[in-house]
């Protein structure tokens, strides 16, 4: 690591090796060669055998990974054109084929198709990590499906939910992300061999005006590069609209993770749920005892950045002029890798956290007990209505007393005396015993939370995980905080 | 119109009545009543016949649209709660049912379900307009599939395309938008009857612990409201993640329209393509002759705003704490209508423009002629390679002469003399006659553009429009500039 | 209020009448007339007395507010040009002057100058409200400058601060906002009389080539409109860069308010600090006892929207082509009022909340007591170092025990036993009595918080408020939640 | 360069060495040491001579740059705390001082102060480059202050301006950026020595309750670090609001550059103005003749990214909870360097382009000539009004004919015949000779453009450059495209 100049923290600190490699020069330039091979083979197969020979193809395939980067870089400095520099270097390795490499193609033939291939592979990594997080959350949700914990609206105590039920909400969000990944992959097609402005003019010339052959060759190139289809029409590039959808799909994951992370940070304050804490980890230089939710805080920040990248792609797409302007180049060169690297970093954290979260049931219970009299008011309302009171009337009475009880707690630091207040009020048709009975039955406050959790896991989540069997589970989620 | 205070321009200037109505108080409050009716009916059907009677249901249905807004507003000012105010007002109209309206429900039961219903209907309007734009563009593309026009990369002349082929790129973008609308609609489900924090605790109580009945009732409410399914799990609200996808889907349309509008504004400068210009329209106070592309400029600005709204929803979703915080309320109240109204305004413009665009073939041709010698260089390169020259060598020679010819044009205002320069160069294996021949055959420069256009329209666009037969075509696209 | 179509909630719900009026048609069109009067007067003063007469000027001044909006609107529908429509209508009222209204001007003469005048007035309203909030916070900070409350980092207990000291942080942020308002106002100048593309060509003609007179007239118009200066150079409009700074300045206020609001929402959960709660306000339909921080939640949402608007202006500015494109029109028409209205709404809430916040000292104390043993560790570290231990060693020991004590609390729900654990450890050079002494002296934990608060208020805040004496204090901060 | 993993393109491609170094680990860690030295010296000066000795201070100063990064990194891996790891490593180098390094401080003492120091230095680099751009533009503007070129509104021909006058608009924008840089620098203060939550509790203890000494020491530390002042109040960190302003200030430069770059790209299409083109630069693989405005396109993309970063800082600031949450860490670690590096890259390009722009006067003239009859209409309107026609009447007549003439050009590709059409119309009080006279006098169409340019340069720009004499002019603006 060079300490004299800026180093990108995404690489030096947060991301997995696999994702870093996908966006390396090596990956890019070898994929360019795969594109050139696919093109030459397809041209050969559809009849350009007077120009292209089997020997040339063999030579090209043999040298796919045989790149002398220094020669290419030197050539690029000279002619200021990266694609032509690599055509040149490939030609040095393939003297026989040197005249037919990139035949009829424009730079974006290799650049666009390579972008698409890398994104396809990057999404496979992302999906794999996402599934692992879903799996972790599902197992955790199942384990704690019955453990009551205080539910909050306005971050004020509402009714209890269960630890597990709350987890299903995060899972549902992630499954929506997964659905959009699949949607994106269904939209992702090869850019194929379309020529300078998308008209395939040069290829039509090469194939002496045979439209059908040009069309088939285009499709063949796509297949050789692992795509089932090509974009029907392109300009010089595939539509930059696709980038916008890519970024939104990843930002969706960021947003889901952010929502989870913020909740976790609040739960950490409440001492109900904590992220794993590594041995030897120092809370802070001065406050050793603290269990700072640093992973969740980092997730929050990384997700914020990821979400902040998405709009860029819309601006770029919507400001492309005609067949293409190059204001997309520098920003895509930074933002596409950043989107994937950030998502990778976030999911690494999400996997790590969900693999070993710590629950404190006594604390969960403590919070409920302090609010139970308040929370029982809905039950009391219902019960009173069933005894014939108007909902409006009992609502008013209960409101009045609960505000008073709330004040007692806040202003005098005393215990919650709501039940006694209600029992003492003649308008309320319950004795103190009846009221205490209502509170005593704690399981009645969590409604269908355990059942909802079980149903959702059984009917939606585990079947989905089964469908992706074998496509996840091996990611590296070791992180440093 | 009240001229003493601010008036929202989206309503006063840009949008269709149909969309304005969807986001009216009337639509909202009558839909709330439909939700209450669906709830009461479902509760009745699954057995709460001791509390709810057929007569009550009849009364509720009869008064669905019978709202005294002033009473509700007065009550809201008093109790500061809009849902309870409308429960009260509905109760005045339905004295028998007054005790069972909203039974077991929380405010978000009506608020969320109504939001979802309105969004479903709003997307139907949007889709209809979008299809009409696609239709307009497809017909226009077919008509001009063979008319050559200069293609640009870097906004510098590249190779020619055709007017029609370029239109297919806009269509392809819009079809991607359409695909994402369908995707969104497949994700949109009822929020159903889930209770205060999503546990259905109150409903479980009402149904005396019968889980199956609560589940069925939830599903039944959804069906009555026109949904095939409900979200399996919710917090107090349906996941705000869905909002994010809604906004991205609409922003996608904005971005597609923006790209089109910017191109049109450039074409207007080039005098190749113009938007319709109304009789009596004044270009500007001082420059009467101008044909300002004001619709396209307005589209650009509206689309920019629409795209700028999307990130808000991600921030809201990702900062929701636990079962819900109310920092979503004011912003959703503004941004959801704005998203749909902006999209409506943009599509109105897009329909209007594409229904009557003006092409100037002589200008299109003039631009090509000025650049034809340059554009022939690719052909010359190909031809020279086929005569045995190395691509690199001929590339260098042609480059040298074309730069010189370019200078002649720019610096001396003279005609393009590239062909003569090449003919005079001994290294170039072509006579001036051969070179002129290359230029003369203009149809050879547009490659497969006409065929691509036809194929795409025939194989993708018209079949799609057929599938949506009857779901579009009647929108109002009269606009004022 | 029309309930059949969408109504902008900013107006119907959140903002002050004064701000709504600033962005009304009435304000706009009467200000246009003021611009026309200023122009005609200045032209007259610098010598166009052959064309313009004192009688005409008198007529124009007399009819400044005499606008028949329906006639203007009808004319606009006919000629599709709002400025010319109002020139026409003004001409009807001023038959003598009708030929010289708008003489030599382009539409943007009235549009830009009016925009700038309205923004200047809007900023005065904003500044006034901002100062009131600072005042409220300052008084509150002074009152509670000594009341300890738990400080948090990572939202984990850190060391105590005081209620008042924390308030100074919000004040400091708002003063930075105020500084940027003043900075903006120093950048805001008249657009003046610059002509169609900024060259003043028509005016130069009117003044028969007298450059000096054109320049002086331009300056004179500015002065008549209340500006000390004009932009030295403009295109058709004043630079859209200024809009960007306007929006950022307001977004800054939004961000400051958002930070405060989020803290308040957390404090509300902690029961330490609450926003005012109105009589008759209903917490929620089902949970009457709740003291939901709804104002703070609304501030959060409004601020999010405000912050989300700022980027639009940068995109508009940076995409203006040459002397002006009209993609700025629709978006500015919406976003400029929205920025000011949102800020107005936020400051109304901020004034309201800070005028009557409720502190619960017993709760503040309770939170500190639970963490006091932990918080004393820094003191213990310092003390041990002063007794000769290495900071590293004692850090490790304290860390070990505080983690164990933390676990006791979380896992067993028992009291914090850290002091006893330390006393029992031979490596620690303190007896239990010494340790308890350290805790007992609570005032030692808040450091200089009271003094910092006093110093800051005395040296920075109150002097600043004095400088603005008379410019604030009368705003309407009555709000509805 | 490691080609196996992702490399940040900002560093490998676009930025200056000086800026890269500012954000290096070396710069960061040596500045941390400077902070520790300043702290120890100040503590010593204000009386902690029983703990701190002159010898210790000498040792610390001597080892300021003597860092063994590998030891620090290994320690960090062990204890997971970068600041404590460097305290440890510094202690190894300074055995005598090891116990007093970082005495009473929290991590943010070094982190925040270092951030602020680096930003101050980075802004100096930015300002220097910005001034050079202003200088280049000013010289260019002066040179071409009289050269007419077509002005555009709606990107439709309006009236002519001059090349130089248009440049003054870009200068004005950049001077506004400069003003905001100075504003920012006036807001930037030291974070100073404030302690864990900003209360200076530990320092108060060290100074045995002497408030004045703590205050003076805080100020002294600031001075030693080159600041004239410290923030009066801080939480654990200086307010994150400052970051927001930093990012907006830089984004402003991005926006100004973007506006310029887009205009330049359009001018490049019009062949009126071109960026420099390097020898050996290859336009594209297939189109050698093209003079692609690649620098301006790159500026556009980089500026888009820069502008897209600014909102992140507002989100971070406004979501900081209480005295600090660590969701700011990862995103600031990436976004602060990115903001400065992007601005650096943009200004490098801007300097490069403006140092050698190519004007084509013949092309500028050609565009004016084609539109001159149209552009004369304003003159004709004015002249006709002065001959007694009503502005409305002549406006209508001219409009009618100019629309017809416009059609002739567009539809028939013929020359502009507007003058003849007007002469042939009896209602128009001018002969063809009079009309041709109006056109012939070309200098009359540019109004005060040359004078405005001169005045602005003389009165505003050059005096400003004089004030900054010696603070700019040496930047490296060599770039690779």
UniProtKB/TrEMBL annotation, chains A, B, C, D:
GO BP field = 'de novo' AMP biosynthetic process; 'de novo' IMP biosynthetic process
Q: Domain Adenylosuccinate lyase C-terminal spans what residues?
A: 372-457
Q: What class of enzyme is it?
A: lyase
**Annotated coiled-coil segments of the chain:** none
- TM helices/strands, residue ranges: none
Q: Does the keyword Lyase apply?
A: yes
Pathway field: Purine metabolism; AMP biosynthesis via de novo pathway; AMP from IMP: step 2/2; Purine metabolism; IMP biosynthesis via de novo pathway; 5-amino-1-(5-phospho-D-ribosyl)imidazole-4-carboxamide from 5-amino-1-(5-phospho-D-ribosyl)imidazole-4-carboxylate: step 2/2
Q: Which InterPro entries does its entry note?
A: AdenyloSucc_lyase_C, Fumarate_lyase_CS, Fumarate_lyase_fam, Fumarate_lyase_N, L-Aspartase-like, Pur_lyase
State the similarity comment: Belongs to the lyase 1 family. Adenylosuccinate lyase subfamily.
Protein name from the UniProt record = Adenylosuccinate lyase
């Amino acid at each position: 690591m060079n300490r004299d100049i800026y180093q990108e923290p995404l690489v030096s600190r947060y991301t997995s090796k696999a994702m870093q490699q996908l966006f390396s020069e090596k990956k890019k330039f070898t994929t360019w060669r795969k594109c050139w091979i696919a093109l030459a083979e397809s041209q050969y197969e559809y009849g350009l055998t007077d120009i292209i020979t089997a020997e040339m193809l063999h030579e090209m395939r043999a040298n796919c990974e045989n790149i002398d980067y220094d020669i290419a870089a030197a050539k690029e400095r000279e002619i200021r054109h990266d694609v032509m520099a690599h055509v040149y270097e490939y030609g040095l390795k393939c003297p026989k084929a040197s005249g037919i490499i990139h035949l009829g193609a424009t730079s974006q033939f290799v650049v666009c198709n390579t972008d698409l291939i890398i994104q396809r592979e990057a999404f496979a990594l992302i999906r794999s990590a996402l599934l692992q997080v879903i799996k972790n959350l599902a197992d955790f949700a199942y384990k704690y499906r019955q453990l009551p914990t205080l539910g909050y609206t306005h971050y004020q105590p509402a009714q209890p939910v269960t630890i597990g039920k709350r987890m299903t909400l995060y899972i549902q969000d992630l499954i929506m992300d997964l659905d959009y990944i699949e949607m994106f992959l269904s939209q992702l097609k090869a850019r194929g061999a379309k020529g300078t402005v998308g008209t395939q003019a040069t290829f039509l010339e090469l194939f002496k005006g045979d439209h059908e052959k040009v069309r088939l060759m285009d499709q063949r190139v796509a297949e050789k590069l692992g795509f089932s289809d090509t974009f029907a029409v392109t300009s010089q590039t595939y539509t930059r609209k696709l980038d916008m959808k890519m970024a939104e799909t990843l930002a969706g994951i960021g947003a889901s993770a952010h929502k989870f992370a913020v909740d976790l940070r609040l739960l950490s304050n409440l001492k109900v749920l904590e992220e794993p804490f590594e041995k030897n980890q120092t809370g802070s230089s001065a406050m050793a005892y603290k269990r700072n939710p640093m992973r969740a805080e980092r997730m929050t920040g990384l997700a914020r950045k990821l979400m902040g990248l998405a709009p860029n792609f819309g601006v770029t797409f919507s400001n492309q002029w005609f067949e293409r302007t190059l204001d997309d180049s520098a920003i895509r060169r930074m933002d596409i890798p950043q989107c994937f690297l950030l998502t990778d970093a976030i999911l690494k954290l999400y996997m790590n956290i969900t693999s070993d979260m710590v629950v404190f049931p006594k604390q969960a219970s403590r919070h409920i007990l302090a609010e139970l009299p308040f929370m029982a008011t809905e039950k009391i309302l219902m019960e009173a209505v069933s005894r014939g009171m108007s909902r409006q009337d009992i609502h008013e009475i209960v409101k009045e007393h609960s505000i008073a009880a709330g004040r007692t707690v806040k202003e005098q630091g005393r215990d919650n005396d709501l039940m006694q207040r209600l029992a003492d009020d003649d308008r309320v048709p319950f004795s103190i015993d009846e009221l205490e009975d209502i509170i005593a039955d704690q399981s009645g406050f969590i409604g269908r939370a355990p059942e909802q959790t079980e149903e959702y896991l059984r009917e939606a989540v585990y079947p989905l995980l089964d469908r992706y069997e074998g496509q996840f589970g091996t990611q590296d989620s070791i992180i440093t905080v």
